[in-house]
Every structure is written in C-alpha cells, then in structure tokens.
UniProtKB/TrEMBL annotation:
Organism: Pedobacter lithocola
Pfam family, one: Peripla_BP_2
Protein name (record): ABC transporter substrate-binding protein
Gene3D superfamilies per UniProt: Nitrogenase molybdenum iron protein domain (3.40.50.1980)
Residue ranges of domain Fe/B12 periplasmic-binding in the record: 2-289
Transmembrane segment boundaries: none
Amino acid sequence: MRIVSFLPAATKMIYDMGLQEYLYGVTFECPKEAADMPKVVRCILEGKNYSSIEIDKIFSASKAQGKSLYWVDDELLESISPDIVFTQDICEVCNIDTVCTETAVMKLTKQPKLVPLSPNNLQDVFECAITIARAIGKEEVALNYLASLQKQTDDILDKLRANKAPLKRVMLMEWIEPIYNCGHWIPFQIAAAGGVDMLSNPAGDSIVTQWDKVLKYNPQVLVIAPCGFDITRSMEEMSLLTSKSGWNDLEAVKKNQVYLADFDMFTQPSIGTLVDGITSLSCMFHPEIFEADERISAKFLNYSKIEVFK
C-alpha cells in the first residue's frame, strides 16, 4: 500500500503510530520526521518571510481571485501512484484542500482513494487517528495510541479537580494582525487545561476579533500562537500588539500572564501535538499545580521573560 499525505497533521499521526512504512509522499510543511520524504505539495509562500499583514493580504487576494496558495507536483504524484491520499477541508490557508486535491488526482492514471480528515472538535481529532489507521488496515494501532493520550488528558483533569482549580479567563490568538480568535478544537483544549475562552468559536472557524472586544473581555491569561509561527517568529510580531492602546491595562499583561507558544500544539491537529498543547496550557493557566518537563517547556514562553532572546 502506498500513501500520500497532503496534511501535516496526518503525516505526524502516521509517524506517531509507527505506520510510516506506508508513506511515500508528503507536503513541504510536514513535520521533521518526514524531512527526507518526497514533497508532493508546494506553496507560493514557501521559503518566504512575510509578515502577518502581508500573509493575510496574499490569502485574501488569492481567495478573491479563486486561486489556491498551493500546487501539486503532478509528475511526482504520478510516479508514486498512491493507493490512498489523505487531505482536509478545514482551512484553505493552512493546507491544500480537498477540491484542489481532487483536481490533481483526476489527472492520475490510477485513481487513489481520497480520505478527507476534517475535524471540528477535539473528539473528532481523536477519531481522525482511527480513520487513518483503519484506511491502512491497522485500526488496533490507533486504539493503543489513543489510549495513552487519553490517559494524559484524564490525569490533567483529575489533578485540576483534586486541587479545586478555578477556571481561568483565557484568550488564545490564532493570528496577530488582524487579530483572530481561536476555533475548532482549540477551545476544547483550553477547557481540558482548566480555562475558558469566551471569545472563541468552538467547533467553528476562527474569525477576526476587534481589539476593543479583547479589552472588554480582559483575559487573565493571553496565549499567542499564530498559525505557522513558532515562538521566535511570533516574537517578531509582538510590537503589533504591545503598541495597541490599552495593552498595558490587560490583566494578563499586568500579572505577567502573556505567553507565546509554538503553533503546532494548536493549529496542526495531530492528536499527539494537541495533547502537548493541553499539557502546556495547564502549565500556563495553573503553574502552581503543573510543572512543564524539558520538552514541553521548550514549546512556550512567558512574554515577561523576553530577555532570554536578547
């Protein structure tokens, strides 16, 4: 069986479940485990260092013209001759969508099975792992994989209950300029970590959120994790927020509860990385209860400790 993944999250779960022997092609932004894999999907933004504002303008213009940011290496895909192609319909910015995938696949001599993975909430992402493994004929592998991850989230919840931890008023930003709230599975991650984000859109798309709404909501904890940005990249954009009127009045700023976090724990829905996100959020929301190990502590940073980058 030959598999091609047009979705970084699917690629990550394939590796996490030890099923990579069936993988023959990936996208340019798939995780480091797949660094040596043939890159079937490319993007016009690849290798560029555009700002948040520029990326938003490029996507808006592309969408208005009915164009995609992504393209497929047709010759490479034909040479692989896949049996299964994993794709998605969640976001046209983050990854190539099913419509573009179908257009590329129609040209192939052998027609593969398209398996779209389009989760809306956290439980859906768990089920995506089963969908992937079932398509390969290895469903039991997914069940074992998910059991260990479920135990991690259950342990966090048990600890929150045992310590009678209060819910923290949280906002997680998926984009800086313009500001986007968080959607889909992220509000469920926040809840699993002991917080609530009343500006979020659970099981739905993230949307532009006006700054005055953020000020009125006044989060106790502010998590900044723009899609596609790691901590260092987000740091380059922080002046867009810190220069806004009222920034210093936010409770999260006053109490040094502003965090930068790597995007892959939130906006790349591999269930393993999302559980890492829940773990990291629990440490941000309730540092008096949870302590991050070395691996998790490298994935987020308290903004008040900016001097470590100097």
